Amino acid sequence: MISKNFRIAGTLIGENSPTYFIADIAANHDGSLERAKNLIWLAKESGANAAKFQHFKAKEIVSDFGFANLLDSESHQSKWKKSVAETYEDASIPSEWTSELKKTCDAAGITFLSTPYDFDSVDQIDQYVSAYKIGSGDIDWLELISYVASKNKPIILATGASNLVEIERVVEILTRSSNEFAVLQCNTNYTAHPDNYSHINLKVIELFKEVWPGLVVGLSDHSRGLASVLGAISLGANIIERHFTDDVGREGPDHKFATTPSEWKKMVEEARLLECALGERQKEICANEKMSSIVQRRCVRTNFSLQVGSKLTRQDLKVLRPATPGAIRPNEIDQVIGRVLKVDLKAGEELRWSDFE
Length: 357
Prior knowledge:
alpha/beta, Type Iii Antifreeze Protein Isoform Hplc 12, 8-stranded parallel beta sheet, two-stranded antiparallel sheet, 12 strands, 31% helix, 16% strand, PseI-like, N-acylneuraminate-9-phosphate synthase activity, Aldolase_TIM, SAF_AFP_Neu5Ac
């Protein structure tokens, strides 16, 4: 069901809530449980709300034959030193790790999340996760999505390399279920090339909000730098997901386009400042600019010393700073011309309505 807010492990996500940051550690554990645990602590220290992993068995997610016969030299997998099947085998998380990862997240004070890529993985992680992530590549595997939905937990759906019709189909399934859910705009390209910025299409976030009013939305991002993240938040993103590593130079499928701890800290700091800066949809003089509204604005003042009985002309008047409280404003100057003074005024003195007969 569509809801403006929902909770993951007690944290409120959505409208009028701080942006929720998911550090996707994914395959960046590099086959080491201790490394995975260390990345969890680093993610927490860097300001992430959740540390996310990916649960799959290589034989349940990729066809070795299929990739060996895929005639495409432009895919990111074509740059891997090992076969796709071997790479996924190395990146898979042994089942006995899951409880250890959850315990480490609990100790660090960060939420444990994961993306399951097969039915057994859904069941395996269910006791450990408070929400599920559906990867972009499974957006048309409706039976898996329906199975995840049957667990009655919040769902975060990524939408890379898909179209609106495909997303609508999934949203319809999730709307009929009792699950609260979020939809993340995503461009599924893992090359970290600057040209990818022209394909991120942050305005899709606004489209999601128009098509499904009240929907919790976000960005699953594979770019470097802060532009896409800050832009997404400005357009209403409630969730930001990025891959996380301690070194983008390490060997592995997910390091190159990931965010490091120092970069993550900066991202969260800037996001919190942006959230503060976005403010309200209400234009008024703010508390911190009240004095500026006096010293930088003008009021109507005398051009010369004037005596009682003077009938004012435009030449008798000047519009000068500051706008002394109670003085006549420049937009009222036409109403002053022709009026007769009942007091003496010095040159440069402000005019008040009480100065006239």
